[in-house]
Amino acid sequence: MTRHQPLLIPAAILALSLPAALPALAQEQGTVRIGEMQEPTVLDPTVDATASIDEMLTQNLYESLTTVNEAGEVLPQLAESWEISDDGLTYTFTLTQDAAFHDGTPFDAEAVRFSFERAMAEGSTNPSSDIWEPIESVTVTDPRTIEVTLSRPDAFFLFNLAQGDASIVSPASAETNVTEPVGTGPFRFVSWTRGDRLVLEKNPDHRDAGEVTIPGVEFRFITDASAMAAALLAGELDRAGLGAPELLAQFENDDRFTVEIGTTEGEVILALNNGRAPFDDIRAREAVNRAIDREEIIAGAMDGTATPIGSFYPPHGPAYVDLTGTWPHDTETAAALFQEVGVTELSLTVPPFPYATRSAEIIQAELAQAGVAVSVETVEWGYWLEEVYSNRNYDMTIIAHTSPNDMGNFARGPEYFYGFQSDEFDALWDRISAETDAEARNALLEEGQRYLAENAVMAFLFQLPELAVQRSDLEGFWTAAPVLYQPLKEVHWAE
Amino acid sequence: MRHRASLILGAVLVGLMAAAGLVSLAWTPWPLAEIDVLNKLAAPSAAHPLGTDGLGRDLLSRLMAGAANSLSVAAGAVLLGGGIGTGLGLLASAWGGRVEEALMRLCDLSFAFPALLFAIMLAAAFGPSLLNTGLAIAFINVPIFARVARGAANQVWVRDFVLAGRAAGRGRAAISRDHIVPNIAAPLIVQATIEIATAILAEAALSYLGLGAQPPAASWGRMLAEAQTLLWVAPMQAVWPGLCITAAVLGFGLLGDGLRDWADPRLVRRQA
Question: What predicted TM-score, i.e. pTM, was given to this entire model?
């Protein structure tokens, strides 16, 4: 999941805001209309890292072997049950008999094997190599049973299988899923108008169809936060996430709406390009960490709605340790360090999301006080992916990493856009992913957080909040999303 | 008298804006980039006459700096584009024939090219900046001035004193410089004044889209964009830069109108 984290961000933003509702003029309680800030590139989460695909379709149109609940616990989905061998290497999944693809093709173990092998194939564009990397073999025992053997224990394996990147697709429709998605989920595809909307309807043949009370879902693509707020007020949307916290004010005292400030897995970081000067020198990284003032950034950019972080782990997670005091804000020390290293100018390239562009201006001012002139450039998402994410041609950038369990980003080697490589951390991450005991893993994750903070690998800023507005008679949305997606099966209208 | 009223009102508005911009180069009430988030969106007070923006920066200071940026980009772009355009127009008029034909068709062609698209291309190729915005606006002005200059020059070329000059053996370049330019200066100045108004709007639009001034530089268009999500909580954030743009555009428009009336001999005669 790490691979695309950055992409998720936009999505996250949007997602954060997901759907909202307006009970304005005794509104109709029909199809749920959700505002989405990020237009999907394609409609197949297994081939593209854009976060909004997962947000809208995972566990809604597509399903995976497992799923997770709001607490982040793994639950059965297409796999009814599973057994794990004592050495933690062999998983035997028993599949449900009551699932079928929307086009009528049956769901069976062959579809699972096909989906896994497609994702693992040479040249696959599946965004999450770390889901597939531990898998050694996939064997179909009978149509209801599939055995997956790993080359090493992987504590995140079942959790990873719940993600959109591990969606089960049908061999008959895999190639056309990019425009006409076919899955086994409780909602099926109706239409997609690029730049406008994606429409899903309830799948009456789904095994849990009885629990789904809404007739369908319509995602409307609106990229501008002000336009999103206006659409909510006009009764055009039932729910939406708003990337700009100040827009929430007008909804807070309005009975027609509920405002939810929730959490996401999105760590917003000021990424420092460790792969080249000056940030290959820890003194330069420390200087940035000391020059910034998180409280000021959160107050100015997020209207005080975010929680500061001192490392790369969400504050609501079980292994969280507060490291925001690792590098106390100290402009003078920062200035001295910058002078020592000889840094007087830096560039800050930011993607076009409100949390990033606003933080950038504040960070620019803070670094100016430490004697460094920062040129801020706001670029389009595609340009960011190319220049920053792929070519690593940047000094600093601001991005939210919205995937869960993504500390492994720092073990992705110098080719990842961090330009960071540490044998010590790589070894630590190997131990973390192999550790199956929760308590021991949390202890290791704590060690990981400390390592990243103490080495000032990045300047960690804050946890991205989910700022959602919805009609007050709409219920069933998660406040704290442990994953990218939001199951819509549970969404319903109140009386 | 009507033209004199617009002339005076236009001159006053332009003078105010230009003065504010000039002063901002040397002094602003607060440092432009100094943020103070604990004091953001503050109401007008003695310290901050117009209050502060979303990052706690002094609004008046930023409006003044915005005037400097808007006016210098607009005037610079019109001078550059107008200068090149006038040169091309004079050339076309002096040579006539195929040169004239080719240059004027070239102008038609560039009229067909959307100015905003050109600015976006420049920003994509060289990065968004005020300079590139100015270059894009200058480019739009080239064909406008080429046409005006050529049309006006063509009327002068057939006058007796020009024919006399040619009969005396003076070259086309010398005649253009000594006789044509002074005689077409008035319409060009009027045109330039009106084009500056358009250029201010263009700069504001491009900065609004994020292609012009980059942070922490102040620009009216950028301030409008920043105020957009704040409309509910702090509507004045959008009103002030909006008023400034309106006043500047109106000022240059009135000034241009007034100058045109003033320079038009027929009007002068009628009113005399």
Answer: 0.81
